[in-house]
Amino acid sequence: MSANRPIVLTIAGFDPSAGAGVLADIKTFEQHRVYGFAINTGNTIQTENEFFEMQWTDLAFVLKSLEKLFMNYTINAVKIGIVPSLEYLKEIVFAIKRLSPKTKIVWDTVLKSSTNFDFTTIGNRQDLNEILNQVDLITPNYDEIKIIFPDFTRLSCFISSLSPIRRESNEDFICSVLLKGGHNPNEMGVDYLYIDNEIHQLLPKTIECYEKHGSGCVLSAAITANIALEQNLKTACEKAKIYTENYLLSNSTKLGFHHV
């Protein structure tokens, strides 16, 4: 193990096309000069254009793998991708915090695939609140933010507000939010980063990008790597956005290239 590279972990699904999931995350980690570990939450049958089937990994197996890795290595940051339920996610998040309280957690809130296969439904709001108070950053798009925070029905007001995101009890969430702009028809590609009482607008360098399968995975993995490299959250997100845009521009197909 290289002493010069921090260790990061992705907990996500296996995509055989390697555009998304743990394979995309590991590619991204390597380009950021961090050492990537991976735990598979499920096997998929899919291409970059179509999703066919999902076979989830037993939670006990995932938790046992987590325990062994954290017992043997110092893991600086964790990115979590697709999971079958909030209960499954909550067990993972709380296990990480029990094993390594200082480890940073980024939850890429993938609730469904781009081909409309549902992964996680938000059923138990209390579980969601408990999860959000343990993770450091979530990265929803405009479709997902409306599911996670249904009170924010007018997103224009949500964006313009300088108030931190609140739950029903009006207490502030601890976690920060990167609201991705890829699904925003009014400001395509413009991201909004919410940190405490601050909002940072992250502008794209171009909107002339090619659509890519798994671009959200790449972005959240890049953020996780940058956090492990001890960048502050704003810088981590800014640099990850640049990396992801270069990935989107790498070719005209839905499967992008990662460049050194």
Automatic annotation (TrEMBL):
The keyword Ion transport does not apply. Keywords: Kinase, Transferase. One of its GO terms (cellular component) is cytosol. The keyword Kinase applies. CDD domains: HMPP_kinase. GO terms for molecular function: hydroxymethylpyrimidine kinase activity; phosphomethylpyrimidine kinase activity. It holds the Pfam family Phos_pyr_kin. Its EC number is 2.7.1.49. It is an enzyme of class 2 (transferase). Pathway: Cofactor biosynthesis; thiamine diphosphate biosynthesis. Coiled coil: none annotated. Residues 15-256 form the Pyridoxamine kinase/Phosphomethylpyrimidine kinase domain. One of its GO terms (biological process) is thiamine biosynthetic process. PANTHER family: HYDROXYMETHYLPYRIMIDINE_PHOSPHOMETHYLPYRIMIDINE KINASE THI20-RELATED, PHOSPHOMETHYLPYRIMIDINE KINASE. This is hydroxymethylpyrimidine kinase. It comes from Flavobacterium aquicola.
